Amino acid sequence: MTTTGAVTTSKQLKSILHTLSSPRRVPLSSAKGALLALGGGALLAGQCLAADAGTDDRASMRPVTVEHIRISSKRSYDEVRSALESRIRPFRIERVMPFVMQGDMAGARAELEQLAAPTGLSILYSLDHGLALSLEGAPRKAVGYGIGNVLIAASMNQHNLAAGLYAPIRVVLYEGADGTALFEYDRPSSMFGQFGDAAIDSVAAQLDVTLKNLLLEVSK
């Protein structure tokens, strides 16, 4: 099965972000994207940022407690992946952009709702971690997803743009040692709670339930 990711251009994405306050994301749908994201360039950038944070008084840091969730399945990785990708649709920016370009925000919202139906969630991007591990000579079955809803993200971002750091929610699906599938992700409310905003907390609590129910459903 091939991994399906969002198809977009940086110009189009910036337009969506500006107009609908959608979450910041990196659409990595190809093997090339996977290798670049996991390669030395990303590591070097992270090291530079860490060094800067230690010497620049503009940078601040505070601890955040995050609840981590693991969902195991008796089904195989391939079965669970197929079930998930059949249950929720990939985000298709090309279906939304015509409305945005025409200034038809009502039409854009309606299309976004349709893309997220019936679960209220979409796959905004996917990243084949297993393929990237081929570089180490040990390919595995593992895929990372950005799962969310642009409209839900906008409803949080309007209160605090930093909430875009956690939208969409990152979920990893991989094959365990016994051949069965496992999901892992961080509980949305535990990440968004750091912003101390009741409106964001309310939406995050709904995401907790919606996402967990979806992953339990496709893995049972």
UniProtKB/TrEMBL annotation:
<protein>
    <submittedName>
        <fullName>DUF302 domain-containing protein</fullName>
    </submittedName>
</protein>
<dbReference type="InterPro" id="IPR035923">
    <property type="entry name" value="TT1751-like_sf"/>
</dbReference>
<dbReference type="Pfam" id="PF03625">
    <property type="entry name" value="DUF302"/>
</dbReference>
<feature type="domain" description="DUF302">
    <location>
        <begin position="140"/>
        <end position="188"/>
    </location>
</feature>
<dbReference type="InterPro" id="IPR005180">
    <property type="entry name" value="DUF302"/>
</dbReference>
